[in-house]
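Section 4.2 – Deliverable D4.2 (structural model, holo form)

The reporting period included a commitment to supply a predicted holo structure for the target in complex with tetrahydrodeoxyuridine. Inputs used:
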Amino acid sequence: MPYAVGHVHDCDPFVQEGPMTPHPPTEIPWEQLRRAAQDARSRAYAPYSQHPVGAAALTHTGRIVSGCNVENASYGLTLCAECGLIGELVKTSAAGSRETLIAFACVGPNPGPLLPCGRCRQLLMEHAHPSLLIDTERGPSLLTDLLPFAFGPEDLPHL
Ligand code: THU
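Output (structure tokens):
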């Protein structure tokens, strides 16, 4: 079932703007997302860092996409879990559709949520619904709060 998510604005009954959002939308299945992230983590390829990561996100159409980190002997080539998730999103979206992410959860080897690195916040932003929520230990937080003043497609010259 598609999720009806409006833009973030002062009247949004669920999302409070600010560094943290203490009152998450009740319809987001956070536990299901965390389990999907844990499943993805079990497939991680992290022999160099021993830091397996799994990420999962809910799309506005109600699908869950996920990914795990994939490391490389050439360390700098490591793919974060979010890279796999975005790859799956793009690969499995209906042809011609622009499916956006509305909720995101990530887990590493330590208890509690793992916050996406800076590069991955940028990756997520490109495919985020304007009110994408990120699971944090203090509750759901807007990606726009975690990556303010972000560079985006609108900053590119239109050819
Ligand atoms: N990692 C992710 O998969 N996502 C992040 O947002 C942060 C870091 C991975 C990359 C590397 O394989 C391991 O965690 C240790 O940095």
